[in-house]
Amino acid sequence: MFRKYIEHASDLKNKGNKAYKSGNREEAISSFQDASETLEKLLMKSLSEAQERETETRRLLAVCLSNSAAARLLPVDGQKDPEGAIADAQRAIEADASYAKA
Fold first, then answer.
1. What is the pLDDT of residue 49?
2. Which terminus of the chain has a smaller tally of CB atoms within 10 A, N or C?
3. For position 2, what pLDDT does the model report?
4. pLDDT band for position 18 (cuts 50, 70, 90)
5. Burial class of 52 by CB neighbour count within 10 A (0 to 12, 13 to 18, 19+)
């Protein structure tokens, strides 16, 4: 069950990365947020009880939130979402303060 959650979140992250690279801010944010929610559910369900699993989950959560923060800074109609970017970056730090990009 643990691996299924991780794989699903990774697939969503990859979808977000693709959307980000093509400049599709909304799709990127949506994918990264969906991945983040999946990982937060995993943490809440205690399926990541083993320390290494919790570490892996928190790291991937930090990556998804950091990516979402970056996506929020993509301009759409000349507008960016710096407040949302800051909120996502703060959540990334809370998830894994050791992740260098958070």
1. 63
2. N
3. 87
4. very high
5. exposed
Query: In whole angstroms, what is the distance from residue 25 CA to residue 19 CA?
Result: 7
58-73 as b/e, with b when 16 or more CB fall inside 10 Å? Answer: bbbbbbbbbbbbbbbe
Q: Is residue 27 part of a domain?
A: yes
Q: Is residue 85 part of a domain?
A: yes
Token pair, residue 12, equals: 């969503």
Provide the domain limits for residue 82. 2-95
pLDDT single digits (tens) 32-76: 999 999 999 988 886 556 888 889 999 999 999 999 999 999 999
Structure tokens of 43?
A: 């943490």
Q: How far is CA 68 from the centre of its chain?
A: 6
Residue 26 belongs to a domain:
yes
Number of folded domains that form the chain? 1
